[in-house]
Design goal:
The protein is built from 10 helices and 8 strands. It has 2 domains: about 70 residues, Orthogonal Bundle (Arc Repressor Mutant, subunit A); about 180 residues, GAF domain (Beta-Lactamase), CATH 3.30.450.40. The chain has about 270 residues and is α+β, with helices and mostly antiparallel strands. One of its GO terms (molecular function) is DNA-binding transcription factor activity.
Length: about 270
């Protein structure tokens, strides 16, 4: 696993910055890159910090639930970061969230399933708004979650409408397999993207999470650019009528959000 070099880390410390906060953020970056957990010793060695200092910083972060200590003694990112992430939106996305929230609530109440709004975040996808399921078997969706661009209904809707050069770059890069249904062949994904553009929606048959399907549709802004995707994840089913019902509901919601975006007065 690649971690920034000491030189890269030290460069970020130059300028009018607070060293202890810089060190704390360095720790969080390292922990982020090691989902299985990082020990005090590893952090101390990499950052060239006294173990006592590392311990005190981690204790402070743990008290605020920013990191968690596992039974093995290693540290992982904590749940407090989820609430931070749920409220992180840029100026454009804040309008999207404000407009989408009521539409997502109605969508989830109508279908009994959770629903979400996702946007492109660099070479990934970020969930920026959710409505929870009102049904007994609805899935849980977290705002702030980051997802790959090549796997999943909402992700591929956003990928389908990206610039051609960006699509080619993504498809020529790493395409991790998450389930036995994940599309990892660039040619297959390319055909899927063309189909999405023709149909105006996408269906995920368990490509990112085994046993979980999803339907998604694009949201357009005033210039008709695709700025987000509305989607519903749901437990795997072979009932085509139900899938079509959910797809129609997602399409209607995406159209309603788009209409409000296009007609809103700045």
């Amino acid at each position: 696993m690649t971690i920034d070099s000491d030189e890269a880390v030290s460069k970020r410390r130059e300028g009018n910055q607070v060293p202890v906060i810089e060190r704390m953020l360095d720790m969080l970056e390292i922990i982020e890159r090691r989902p299985a957990g990082t020990s005090i010793r590893e952090l101390s060695d990499f950052l060239n910090m006294a173990r006592s200092t590392v311990y005190r910083v981690l204790n402070t972060l743990e008290a605020r639930n920013v990191v968690k200590r596992s039974l093995s003694g290693s540290y992982v990112l904590g749940p407090r970061l989820l609430s931070f992430a749920a409220n992180v939106v840029n100026a454009r996305d804040s309008d999207l969230v404000e407009i989408a929230n009521n539409h997502l609530e109605r969508l989830s109440q109508t279908t009994g399933e959770a629903s979400k709004l996702s946007v492109r975040d660099g070479d990934a996808v970020l969930v920026i708004a959710v409505a929870h399921s009102s049904g007994e078997y609805g899935l849980t969706v977290r705002p702030g979650r980051q997802l790959p661009l090549h796997a999943g209904a909402a992700s591929r809707v956003l990928l389908a409408y990206m610039d051609g050069d960006d699509i080619a770059r993504i498809l020529n890069g790493p395409l991790p397999r998450y389930t036995d249904k994940t599309l990892c062949d660039p040619e297959e994904i390319g055909k899927s993207l063309a189909q999405i553009r023709r149909q105006g929606s996408a269906v995920d048959n368990g490509e990112y999470s085994a046993g979980v399907m999803a339907v998604a549709a694009p949201v357009r802004d005033r210039s008709s650019a695709i700025v987000a995707a509305v989607s519903i994840p749901f437990l795997n089913t072979e009932a085509e009528e139900r899938i079509e019902r959910l797809r129609a509901a997602v399409l209607a919601t995406a159209k309603a959000i788009s209409h409000e975006l296009m007609t809103r007065v700045s």
